[in-house]
Amino acid sequence: MKTLTLRRPDDWHLHLRDGAVLEGVIGDSSRHFARAIIMPNLVPPVVTTADARAYRDRILAALPAGDRFEPLMTLYLTEHTDPRDVEEGRKSGLITAVKLYPAGATTNSHGGVRDLDKAMPVLERMAKIGLPLCVHGEVTTPEVDIFDREAVFIETVLDLLRRRLPELKITMEHVTTADGIDYIKSSKSNLAGSITTHHLIINRNAILVGGIRPHYYCLPVAKRENHRLALRAAATSGDSRFFLGTDSAPHVDPLKECACGCAGIYTSVNTMSCLAHVFEQENALDKLEAFTSLSGPAWYGLKPNEEMITLEKRDQPVDFPSKRDTEAGAITVFDPGFPLYWEAL
Ligand code: DOR
Ligand code: ZN
Questions:
Q1: Neighbour count for residue 301 (Cβ, 10 Å)
Q2: Where are the domains of the chain?
Q3: Average pLDDT by consecutive 10-residue portion of the chain (345 residues)?
Q4: Which among 247, 286, 315, 325 is annotated as catalytic?
Q5: 3-344: which CATH architecture?
Q6: 41 Cβ inside 6 Å of ligand 1
Q7: Where are the beta strands (DSSP E) in the chain?
Q8: Is position 11 annotated as part of the catalytic site?
Q9: Fewest Cβ atoms nearer than 10 Å: which of 81, 176, 260, 327?
Q10: Which ligand is nearest to the CA of 38?
């Protein structure tokens, strides 16, 4: 039997929601991951340090008994965010990053930023105190095709912001295009990118060929095959500017399987198995630890986890649940479309 031992992984982009969904899903992350950057797009969003502290308490209260898991909290950037509150949140050790959602880009982003100029005082303060900005890198202009939103964002928003504030540390989250990969590679400093599990596995055909498959719909939407291949090459390269952010985003099935379904793919259950499969296919199992456990902490200025995790390759496919049942309803688990033989213990 093949086994693989890694430092315990972290998830640098995770949606845990709240209430019954939080209670139903948190164990799937705390089973394998030591820490995660928690997205603030609740209803209402997590906009102040006090909101983040209360949300962190609710997350810790929902943890299964005996699990150790550290939620790394983020603030949802608005045009009214107070730089003093952000600085206090950082100084108290509670806040790990601030999240920029361009208004309208995705789930619960309507309170996000329309005019970046209005957020400049906060961004300047963040640059000064070394607090990273996590970016949902898509424009929302109706004229821009949804498959081009990331590339246009890089050109018209991100690059300008980086020229204006080169000292600001920016994480381009869930990169989905070769354009994003190239842009990050071409930068000398203060830019890194997270990559999801599912974007390494599906391209846009998975959503649309042979019928519409809502459980493969997420934002940024999966792109053409050449983009998926660029993501795989970056993730498995060992380049420390790329690391795992699953963007595991649970929605109960009725909210996905309807005329206007929500964006989000629930991957927390089988992410480590999917990644071992992908890295093995790319002959890069030796780079898996960098992607899941080393490059992320280095970027966020944290130590890698001391604890280890073991992955074993089975002769028979591992049986994952196809749904996670919660008090709020069932959530479909990501189906990679092939059997998984690696099991994370
Ligand atoms: O697919 C997504 N789902 N992308 C996002 O940016 C948000 C997330 C969610 O919160 O459901
Ligand atoms: Zn997300």
A1: 10
A2: 3-344
A3: 94 98 98 98 97 98 97 97 98 98 84 92 98 97 96 97 98 98 96 98 98 98 98 98 98 98 98 98 98 98 98 97 98 98 97
A4: 247
A5: Alpha-Beta Barrel (3.20)
A6: yes
A7: 3-7, 10-14, 35-38, 70-76, 95-100, 133-135, 170-172, 191-195, 242-244, 308-313, 323-326, 329-332, 342-344
A8: no
A9: 260
A10: 2
